[in-house]
């Protein structure tokens, strides 16, 4: 399929991937952290997550064909034996959050229109299933735009209520609790809500699809998409977090919408927007989950079925000098014609593109139509079946965030960056540039940061639960 993504549509999809229903919990994080500490944690999360996305994008440019980038291809180049674990982390993250969205639909719509949760969960399939059957992430740009309008309404609602009920009146003192600007309101709460802000920026699961589908997927364009998306997300998180917290102070609830008058028409429309946003966010999580499962299938075929292609590839890799690192002349915006001197054989199986590893040349992972729809059907049936039975699994979701989100946002980008950045220079006999050396050192720091966040999140979840 030809790439159709533009910087604008890619930014829309990335922002929508980052900002989800968790936005409404940001004011609660500020309630425990205080305004200054909450804002500081938000900025730290923005910088670290944005750097993780940038490192992933830079690593994709070490491939001969950057449009074949994915977690799977980079894993097969760097840590092939761990590839299943990395894909499993992606599956756990996307499956867990997607399942929580279906449960949220069952909790939300009965309060708006009546009926049973099971009815609304099943009814949502009329919208969700067709969107999940789209093959390209860029095809979801229109639904993402609708979701962004819903997010914009919710954000505007929270900011407007703050301006009207707090800045323009003195009555707020009767319902607003204590407000902390420079001190932490609740140290126990600071730990228990730490992951809310850190995990709010998780968007790397769709980054490679965005890179592969961009018409002009130069590093400059990709960096622009990442920077714009992180900037927009940070502005929304800070606006909603600070305004929501300053409206209700220490009385702020875990879902800020529960603080507002349920009889208000504006709040009613806001809850309707929340329900719409959740439904339109589900396909953005389903897309990378399906890809990760396909990667596991391909990995199993290679390793357990003893694919005959692999021995010859390994022999060629050993016999060719200079193929111990990814082959690319430089990380620039040039076309692949400059690589014409390298052997770039591509195999084909039943007319579908297939995964080929020649030295470090990783080609497109096979995803035939039959497997695409089979995985989609099995995933949807499983997720809907569980959503109809599960009442609450916040504890499990917290563990999912501690493992899946941290792995794909910090640990994996750091590992890839340390292993791959600069190898394009080494492949042509040049030394690694000072800038790339800096990125490699920062990649190591990102790994340790991710491990620290994972350990702390596990501790918080086990010690304090999700109350």
Write the layout of secondary structure elements.
Elements: H1 7-18, H2 26-33, H3 35-60, H4 71-78, H5 83-113, H6 117-123, H7 125-132, H8 141-167, H9 187-192, H10 194-198, H11 207-213, H12 219-248, H13 265-304, H14 309-319, E1 348-349, E2 352-353, E3 357-358, E4 361-362, H15 369-389, H16 394-420, H17 423-427, H18 434-464
Antiparallel strand pairs: 1-2, 3-4
Helix pairs in contact: 1-8, 1-12, 2-3, 2-12, 3-12, 3-16, 5-6, 5-13, 5-15, 5-16, 7-13, 8-12, 8-13, 16-18
SS strand fraction: under 5%
User: How many helices does DSSP assign?
Assistant: 18
Q: Topology as H/E string?
A: HHHHHHHHHHHHHHEEEEHHHH
Shape: globular
**Could you report the average pLDDT, rounded to the nearest whole number?**
76
Helix content: 55-70%
Instruction: Supply the number of structural domains.
Output: 1
TL;DR?
Residues 4-454 form the Amino acid transporter transmembrane domain. The protein is an all-alpha fold.
Question: Explain this structure to me?
Answer:
This protein is mainly α. The protein has a single domain (7-298, 370-464), classed as Amino acid/polyamine transporter I, CATH 1.20.1740. The protein is built from 18 helices and four strands. Strand 3 and strand 4 (361-362) form a beta hairpin. Helix 3 packs antiparallel against helix 12 (219-248). The radius of gyration is 23 Å and the shape is globular. The relative contact order is 0.18.
